[in-house]
Amino acid sequence: MAIRVLLVDDQPLLRTGFRMILEAEQDIAVVGEAGDGLQALDQVRALQPDVVLMDIRMPRMDGVEATRQITGPERDGPAKVLVLTTFDLDEYVVEALRAGASGFLLKDAPANELVQAIRVVAGGEAMLAPSITRRLLDKYAIHLPSGEEPVPDTLHTLTDREVEVLKLVARGLSNAEIAADLFVSETTVKTHVGHVLTKLGLRDRVQAAVYAYESGLVRPGAQ
């Protein structure tokens, strides 16, 4: 079945451009459009999209709050949110990731990257390079804990190896890089990452990286 996509942006021209790109793909169907966050919520309930391509800065309700409501515990469907931004280091992107977005993409990204991002997010993965996650968090470190706060109780549910893997995820290493660093197989790393996500109640490695910073496990700027 085709991946159902909802386009949310306050600029009609951009929505038209995205629609043209996505509808050229056999496995993607654009099921609707919205010009702001409030319309997006109505459309998500009515159309049940798989992926919401979400602008951040919009009138009435911005993309961060819309993302929070779409992906929150009271959500009406399984929609994933892929945030669109004009700037690759945008403070609102950090808030959107905290709100539950599965990643972000620059508005001027090549068409093939947009299509690939839709497919990746629809498949339940995070569309955000770990290194970009770290750059974002480092830049806005002033909004994060200093590392002196008590460690959350949930962190104690992880084994020593799982904590080690979580730190490497937050540092921006891929599964292959983590495997090389720890002298284990990629399959083993994927298993550890899966256990970390399950134990901490996180959706993907983007949220895991955010958790590592917010818990003080990893300090901004640390190597």
From TrEMBL:
Transmembrane segments: none annotated. Residues 4-122 form the Response regulatory domain. The modification 4-aspartylphosphate is found at D55. PANTHER family: TRANSCRIPTIONAL REGULATORY PROTEIN NARL-RELATED, TWO-COMPONENT RESPONSE REGULATOR. Residues 151-216 form the HTH luxR-type domain. The keyword S-adenosyl-L-methionine does not apply. Keywords: DNA-binding, Phosphoprotein, Transcription, Transcription regulation. It comes from Streptomyces similanensis. This is Response regulator transcription factor. The keyword Mitochondrion does not apply. Pfam families: GerE, Response_reg.
